[in-house]
């Protein structure tokens, strides 16, 4: 904790804003400050949990749900083995999900299906995938764009939830990836408005 405190103090004392043309250096300093601040929050949350503070209290302090707090700062244990679970999402998964969605929206069914793991290949043909996308377009019009995905590690897979905008409706594309970058699950659901 002492080393973390010294690192944070050094970053805070460094010059971040500049009047010259050295924006790359300033941005780098700002990113380092953010990383140090994240490390401090993580350390404080771990200390609070060791003292018996609930995830609800942690979530309230962070302005998020207790589940979101746990997903970001928790250390889940695999109930099958008793070992700590890998909570690190698959690297590059946001771009991977975006490329799958681009392929769906442009009718590249074979490109999507070739990414399926064996179970998905057995359960969802290219024709069925095309029919499902056609049904969504039939209900809500043409695809207009996608937002930034929410990403979480769930056991042995990484799950992405990407907002989709169509002409007359909003959807979420939930795509589950294995560590070998194959698709283990693909589900698109409509966002209901109140």
From TrEMBL:
InterPro entries from the UniProt entry: DUF3887 (IPR024981)
UniProt domain DUF3887: residue ranges: 97-186
Protein name as catalogued: DUF3887 domain-containing protein
Source species: Nocardiopsis ansamitocini
């Amino acid at each position: 904790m002492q080393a973390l405190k010294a690192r944070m103090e050094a970053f805070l004392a460094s010059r971040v804003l500049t009047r010259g043309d050295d924006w790359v250096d300033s941005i780098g300093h700002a990113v380092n400050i953010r990383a140090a601040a994240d490390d401090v929050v993580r350390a404080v949350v771990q200390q609070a949990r060791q003292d018996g503070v609930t995830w609800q209290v942690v979530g309230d302090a962070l302005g998020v749900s207790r589940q979101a707090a746990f997903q970001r700062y928790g250390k889940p244990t695999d109930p099958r083995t008793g070992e700590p679970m890998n909570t690190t999402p698959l690297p590059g998964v946001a771009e991977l999900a975006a490329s799958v969605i681009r392929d769906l929206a442009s009718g590249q069914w074979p490109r999507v299906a070739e990414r399926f793991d064996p179970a998905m290949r057995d359960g969802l043909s290219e024709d069925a995938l095309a029919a499902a996308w056609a049904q969504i377009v039939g209900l809500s019009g043409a695809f207009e764009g996608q937002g930034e995905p929410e990403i979480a590690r769930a056991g042995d897979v990484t799950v992405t939830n990407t907002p989709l905008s169509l002409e007359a409706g909003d959807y979420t594309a939930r795509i589950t990836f294995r560590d070998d970058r194959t698709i283990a699950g693909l589900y698109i659901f409509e966002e209901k408005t109140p």
